[in-house]
Design brief:
This protein is mainly alpha-helical and 137 residues long. Helices cover 82% and strands 0% of the residues. Helix 1 (2-21) crosses helix 4 (49-66) and helix 3 packs across helix 6.
Length: 137
């Protein structure tokens, strides 16, 4: 059991390192490939939905740990995993390629919305904090 856990965590860590180190260095259309997210969708569709959510949460933690700290990947992937868990149980089956594509598109939409709101909140808060700092200085 513990050996499987270490293999799982090692696989997540290596895939995060591969995405951040190798895929991000490729030319433009290929450098935007969300390999970790796609792997989570595949695990959610083919293995079990809860394992896909766990994969996304752990991968989001490693992305926050190793990647750029401008976006909370744990929050984005966690909300996407929750939406995917609901959709996998209520809407889509696990026997169709179209269901997997719909699940991935819906989950990617949730990730994009969370990241968009994250940037909007940061940009909206920036003038407020600048005005506070300028008053104190």
């Amino acid at each position: 059991m513990i050996a499987r856990l270490f293999i799982f965590l090692g696989t997540v860590f290596l895939l995060v390192a591969f995405e951040l180190g190798v895929i991000s260095a490729w030319p433009m259309p290929w450098s935007q490939l969300p390999l970790i997210f796609l792997t989570g969708v595949l695990i959610m569709h083919f293995v079990r939905p809860i394992f896909g959510v766990i994969w996304l949460l752990i991968a989001g933690f490693f992305l926050d740990l190793l990647g750029l700290p401008d976006v909370s990947h744990v929050l984005a992937f966690g909300l996407s995993g929750a939406a995917g868990l609901f959709l996998a149980h209520r809407v889509f089956t696990n026997r169709s390629v179209y269901a997997m594509m719909g699940l991935g598109a819906a989950m990617y939409f949730v990730v994009s919305l969370v990241i968009l709101f994250w940037y909007l909140i940061q940009d909206a808060a920036t003038p407020f904090f600048h005005s506070l700092i300028s008053e104190w200085i």
